[in-house]
Fold this sequence. Notes:
Elements: H1 2-10, E1 35-41, H2 47-55, E2 67-69, E3 78-82, E4 85-86, H3 90-99, E5 105-109, H4 111-115, E6 125-127, E7 137-139, H5 146-157
Parallel strand pairs: 1-2, 1-3, 3-5, 5-7
Antiparallel strand pairs: 4-6
Helix pairs in contact: 2-5
Amino acid sequence: xxxxxxxxxxxxxxxxxxxxxxxxxxxxxxxxxxxxxxxxxxxxxxxxxxxxxxxxxxxxxxxxxxxxxxxxxxxxxxxxxxxxxxxxxxxxxxxxxxxxxxxxxxxxxxxxxxxxxxxxxxxxxxxxxxxxxxxxxxxxxxxxxxxxxxxxxxxxxxx
Length: 159
């Protein structure tokens, strides 16, 4: 019974929010304070995915700033793309972007998505995300920290 009392006494623990970020990109029409995000791995090493999971986890809690992960591009306002685009992911990436209703945002997360990172010149890599689809927001880092991911999402939601 003591663990239940400790939970009640401690309450919710989360990182304190920084000051409100400046809006870097206008959110899609109809997105006011909330952003439905579909994550797509175009060929990453999974370092960015671990940081994205942390950003949406209980400590950083990106959902408190209005960003929420969804399971389908048809339900999304934005696509969060990680990794250098491989040959096998070119068409699925284009299909996912086409399936996302307009207006939409495309967010390139990590150095690999921005400039292929350590995978530049690899035989299976076609190029960065911007070579395949138009990118609206870039989150640099290898991998970017959960703070950087949350800050980029906050710059879109305005929260």
